[in-house]
Amino acid sequence: MSEAKVHSTTLSANDFDKRLQSLPADDYVIQTRHDTIALGPRTWLMGIINVTPDSFYDGGKRFDPAKAVADGIELVEAGADMIDIGGESTRPGAPPVSVEEELRRVLPVVQGLRRTVKVPISIDTYKAGVARAALAAGADIVNDISALRFDPEMAALLAREKVPVVLMHMQGTPRTMQAEPRYTNVLGEVRDFLEAQIGVALEAGVELKNIIVDPGIGFGKTLDHNLILLRGLPALASMGYPLLVGASRKTFIGKILGAEPDERLEGSLAAAVAAVFGGAHIIRAHDVKETCRAVRVADAIRFGMPGAQR
Ligand code: 7PM
């Protein structure tokens, strides 16, 4: 009869306490031009405003700037810690948009929200021209789904403006990414890609405290790839940069549940909670009120209540 292997997993009370103390990412800081944002005591929530006629979930609803601004204010009231404004759909095969058209869509919304909300505003664009104008209009953060690959001017702009950037992984381009996503080791390749693009950013003069990384859930990934990435988030969190995760209403949830985008709320909340436990610092979500409630409970389990003894 073979003997079952028994590993000692006993931690002294003191070791256990140390492990808990080291869990929260207290020293993760993002430096905007106006604020020092201490990530870590709790998970931050990025609410999404798409100012596009063709976005997969909320497309069309917010094409009117006044409506988009009103919705942004509502997202902040619902608990968004920052707002991400995008003017070009990144849906596979979506038509590209010119700088002029993208600015026509997003600038009034950036201006309107800058006047009315205090939270940081992120501009979702891979075009340096759009980022430049949005930053001048009061945006604080650039969310670049190409991680500096699509516009050779982006890195220098970010360095000059000293603003935080989200470097997101995508295999290929929005047009091609879902054709036949292929990896030998998706987690390792995403990590290597992010390290490489961090190198590009640093080389251009972007500061360490301005870098946020993101595995790009749904961007050139199969269902299995997305699940491996979400399961492997600790390997990305351990890179040492603030980690943003966007799974809200994405196709992989639809595939698991057999659900259309408007039936993906519960699945999105499950993914958000999984991301919190995987070490995500920022969750990007459409349904801010619901995600905020789910994440607050996840945070309390993970970190304890604010001010409580750990
Ligand atoms: C099709 C695929 C349509 C993906 C819409 C989407 C992310 C992002 C988006 C993300 C960061 C959506 C996305 N997703 N930016 N922009 N991370 N940093 O669901 O995961 O809104 S667009």
SSE order and pairing:
Blueprint: H1 13-22, E1 28-31, E2 36-39, E3 44-50, H2 65-77, E4 82-86, H3 99-116, E5 121-124, H4 128-136, E6 141-144, H5 154-161, E7 165-168, H6 186-204, E8 211-214, H7 223-231, H8 233-237, E9 244-246, H9 251-257, H10 265-278, E10 282-285, H11 288-303
Parallel strand pairs: 3-4, 3-10, 4-5, 5-6, 6-7, 7-8, 9-10
Antiparallel strand pairs: 1-2
Helix pairs in contact: 2-3, 3-4, 4-5, 10-11
The structure holds ligand 7PM.
Describe the structure.
The chain has helices at residues 13-22, 65-77, 99-116, 128-136, 154-161, 186-204, 223-231, 233-237, 251-257, 265-278, 288-303, and strands at 28-31, 36-39, 44-50, 82-86, 121-124, 141-144, 165-168, 211-214, 244-246, 282-285. The chain contains 11 helices and 10 strands. 41% of the residues lie in helices and 14% in strands. The strands form 2 sheets. An 8-stranded parallel beta sheet has the order 8-7-6-5-4-3-10-9. Helix 2 crosses helix 3 (99-116). The protein has one domain: TIM Barrel, CATH 3.20.20. The protein is α/β, with parallel strands linked by helices. Strand 6 (141-144), helix 5 (154-161) and strand 7 form a beta-alpha-beta unit. Ligand 7PM binds next to strand 7 and strand 9.
